[in-house]
Request: fold
Amino acid sequence: MRVLGRPLRKWGREYYEHIGVGFETPTEFTRLTARENLEVFASLYRGQVADPVELLDRVGLREAADQRSGTFSKGMRMRLSLARALLNHPRLLFLDEPTSGQDPVRAARLREVVRAEADRGTTVFLTTHDMRTAEDLCDRVAFVVDGRIAAVDTPDGFRRRHGRPGVVAEYVADGRPRRRSFDLADLGAGGELSALVATGSVTSLHTREATLDEVFAAVTKVSL
Reply:
């Protein structure tokens, strides 16, 4: 196995200068503040490190910088763990359920942080059961079943392979919301979808691609 262009067995301690790791079960010094935790871990690196306060600001913990981490909620501890993983400007970033314990707003913010790292050239390995996170962040997705990779593809590739060509219309009939699927043959002028749209009752149209949740269910069912 080669990592960063070199066989893994030939790497020494300097390997750890190039990687960052964020665990689903956060580990920190609970009697230290968030800032002190980052300063301690920063002292372990020989290369340039990021400013702890700037990192805390990126993950939404700036106001808690001088608060003992032992008082943090699970979500706050996860954000501190992500900040710690980014201290050394890693070239490889391993993250396990990075949005665990976050509300939708904070989860979106953390996804932006991770995407920014990928955009600057960092290779990110992400493990998650949250298909929204996988869809938003991953260029390639692998589904693992019983310790084996059952399928690998891009999110879009999975959606197309497991979906059915066509669209889904949501509309109102008899005062109640309705939902109906249409095949490609129904989409032309004079088709059933055109007739429904002409009634003015359609409230939304979207493609009938499979979601990653549906793909996961299909892949794991076949594998099991």
